[in-house]
Amino acid sequence: MAIEFARSERSTVGIEWELAIVDRSTGELASVGDRVLADLGSADGTPHPFITTELLTNTVELVSGVHTDVAGAVDDLTGQVGEVRAVLDRIGEYELICSGSHPFSRWYDQRLTDKPRYRKLIERTRWWGRNMMIWGIHVHVGIEERDKALPILDGLLAYVPHLQALSASSPFWAGVETGYASNRALMFQQLPTAGLPYQLPDWGAYERYVDDLVRTGVIEDHTEVRWDIRPSPRWGTVEVRVCDGVSSADEIGAIAALIQCLVEWMSTRLDDGETLPVMQPWYVRENKWRAARYGMHAEIITDAAGAERPVADALRDLLVTLAPVAERLGCAVELQRIRRTIDEGAGYQRQLKVAEQHGGDLTAVVAHLAKELREGTHPRTGSGSAG
């Protein structure tokens, strides 16, 4: 099966941001996404070009255009947040939040979006699929040559724990504190074809993999391969999907800048004739689990020899390594915002702190998430040592 990889300008960036809608008074998820999207469409019924549905009707997905810099993509998304918010204010008392999971709403109270693709997914996955009350961010980075896509994907697997820890924001599930920084990470990988990618030697091997799945009825096309990091042939990008949803424009910009810089850094090394180092799959899997469990306190495996160090220390060194790349790409300001997350706490840490301050009241956590999204940044909370 031949899969065409579209031409894309090198290291351009696009971001997808999944937002949940909640009732302002109760904090519960509100299944009004279909009404919002209907209002956002044109008079002739044409849907909004960049704001779209997701699996559940409590969610809207914002999709930026293609940008040369992260700031442009984030501005694009914040403009779309304003459009959605204007509709929500007209139809009722609703708010927007983003995190890897909702602190307390239950799966059986949610409505599915009426699309054949989603109906098929739920019919196949049943209980696991119905439990997919999860939200994430997806970052696309342009690859100018198809044969760079899989080597860069394999190279990025060493940075799964860095991205997982930075974005981790799902410590609660259906009202329970799970003990995980990212419960979403472990929930999502229960779906067929989701989770960590296979390490494939070349594009032909990827085409054969997709062909095998299509012939055996696992998927209908390559878009149903829902890896944590995947090639996106339609757009000519590598798409990083491992991150939990984050609750502010500042954070989404910081994480997108890190991903854009990593891809450009690896692309340049390939141009220079280097072979990118690749971690053993069992180390990659262990690293993902450690970051999901311990978040910013994870001790991660950093190379094929099995060296280990705290993920926060690895991130600080990585910011130094990538600083010249960020200057070249115009995202130095966004990249350096990662230091604030390291110093003051990732999303899961802030949620746990708010819950503790309010005697375990998780409606306060929802209000906190709504405030962060509305203000575009997270408030300074002091030490990031919680959790």
Textual characterization of the structure:
- The protein has 387 residues and is of the alpha+beta class.
- The chain is globular, with a radius of gyration of 20 Å.
- Strand 10 and strand 11 (308-310) form a beta hairpin.
- The N and C termini lie far apart (47 Å).
- Helix 5 (160-167) runs parallel beside helix 9 and helix 8 crosses helix 10.
- The chain is built from 14 helices and eleven strands.
- Helices cover 45% and strands 12% of the residues.
- The strands form three sheets. Strands 1, 2, 3, 4, 5, 8 and 9 form a seven-stranded antiparallel beta sheet that branches. The chain has a two-stranded antiparallel sheet with strand order 6-7.
Runs in which pLDDT lies below 50 for 5 or more consecutive residues are 381-387
Measured as a percent range, the helix fraction is 40-55%
Number of helices: 14
Secondary-structure element sequence?
Answer: EHEEHEHEHHEEHHEEHHEEHHHHH
Radius of gyration: 20 Å
- Termini Cα gap: 47 Å
* Major sheet details: 7 strands, antiparallel
User: How many beta-strand elements?
Assistant: 11
Mean pLDDT across every amino acid position? 95
**What is the overall silhouette?**
globular
Structural class, judged by helices and strands? Answer: alpha+beta
